[in-house]
Design goal:
By secondary structure, this protein is an alpha/beta fold. 45% of the residues lie in helices and 21% in strands. The protein contains 8 helices and 11 strands. Helix 2 (36-45) packs parallel to helix 3 (62-70) and helix 6 packs across helix 8.
Length: 229
């Protein structure tokens, strides 16, 4: 799927050149904004893989736009500016930009930097996806999509049941007492029987024989733990 880039610059000629090079030659999907306020509005209305952001903009300058975007998103940002002083570069990076290019820049260099950043971002996302998957015997847990599959069949869990299973699976072998589970899952003190009820329901959904569990075990007088043996 083509990557989507938002270009923010108040110079139509710059946007025209960037759009031609990145959209027509590289196949990226391009949206544009000509001032800082429009950039924020457009960014909030869609999802982007990278932002090319000019420093000197009407209404909101590039630093302000970068700071606003960075407060809610880790989307890669390359700042562009006609200024070449080191302080501008330092401030751009301190405000959360991932890279910085001074105008006039070499288009081949810009393309190379975009490709490097997008490749790095894809690698990070792939690593996150791999780390978000837990497989224990015949149970598969997708932490990102909150899916559970057992022996090839998807199991529907409530939010609290999934949170319990996730906690246990990420801490296999660790015993949790009921007070700790109330604090970690329900974020409050309460009736300890709430934990027992949810454990029983979870076992009914994931265990072949809930009366003789293979995953969520009881350590009598202490609490519950997840066994992968």
């Amino acid at each position: 799927m083509a990557k989507k880039i938002l270009i923010v610059d108040d110079e139509p000629s710059v946007i025209k050149g960037l759009r031609f090079s990145l959209e027509k030659q590289e196949g990226y999907i391009i949206d544009v904004a000509y001032d800082g306020e429009s950039a924020i509005e457009i960014f909030e209305s869609d999802k982007y893989d990278l932002i090319l952001l000019d420093l000197m903009l009407p209404k909101l300058n590039g630093m302000e736009v970068c700071q606003r975007i960075r407060s809610v998103s880790d989307v890669p940002i390359i700042m562009l500016s006609a200024k070449g002083e080191d302080m501008d570069k330092i401030m751009g990076l301190e405000y959360g930009a991932d890279d910085y290019l001074t105008k006039p820049f070499n288009m081949l260099e810009l393309k190379a930097r975009i490709k490097n950043i997008l490749r790095r971002t894809d690698n990070v996302e792939n690593e996150k996806k791999e780390l978000s998957k837990i497989e224990v015997k015949d149970i598969f847990i997708d932490l990102l999509n909150r899916n559970v599959v057992i022996a090839g069949k998807e199991v529907n869990l409530t939010a609290k049941e999934f949170e319990l299973l996730q906690l246990f699976a990420l801490n296999r072998g660790r015993v949790f007492d009921r007070e700790s589970l109330l604090d970690l899952i329900w974020k409050q003190k309460g009736d300890l029987r709430t934990v027992d009820v949810h454990i029983r329901r979870l076992r009914e959904k994931i265990e072949r024989d809930p009366a003789n569990p293979a995953y969520i075990m009881t350590k009598w007088g202490v609490g519950y733990y997840f066994s992968d043996k």
